[in-house]
Specification:
Elements: H1 3-19, H2 27-40, E1 45-55, E2 58-70, E3 74-79, H3 86-99, E4 103-108, E5 118-122, E6 133-136
């Protein structure tokens, strides 16, 4: 499945889920519903995936958790807030850089209309071979 197909399926599922139970419920509920819907569509979904980071010879097993990792290529961060803050996009971009993934979706189920709560974050960063920060790619 192509990257655009994966992100398209995630966006389609999030709009459907937002419409049915409605906005402003718990993030954990939206995360579970979205994971279930995506699995039913045949996608591989990991919830609360631990990401390991290595720095200066030290392995940090649980550096962060991705809400959803879909098909090993898209990180999805689920929010249910009145308004996204700039820190939310920066957090997702950091996750993308650490995992060397290209695309993430920031989904805010707190918006009145789901289309207003979708942000696609793209990592254009090309890591340096000499960087002391290393991430063990998701398995």
């Amino acid at each position: 499945m192509e990257l655009d197909d994966v992100t398209g399926a995630i966006i389609d599922a999030s709009i459907r889920i937002h419409r049915d139970p409605g906005p402003r419920l718990l993030e954990s509920l939206y995360e579970a519903l979205l994971a279930r819907d995506l699995r039913q569509r045949g996608l591989h979904v990991d919830r609360q995936r631990l990401i390991q980071v290595s720095y200066d010879g030290i392995d940090i097993e649980d550096a962060f958790r991705a809400d959803l990792l879909v098909n090993e290529c898209v990180i999805v961060e689920v929010k249910s807030v009145d308004r996204l803050a700039p820190v939310h996009a920066r957090q997702l971009l950091t996750y993308l850089r650490l995992t060397d993934l290209r695309v993430g979706l920031l989904l805010n189920f707190g918006e009145g209309r789901m289309k207003d709560g979708i942000r696609r974050i793209v990592n254009d960063h090309i890591p340096s071979a000499s960087s002391p920060l290393r991430v063990n790619h998701p398995r």
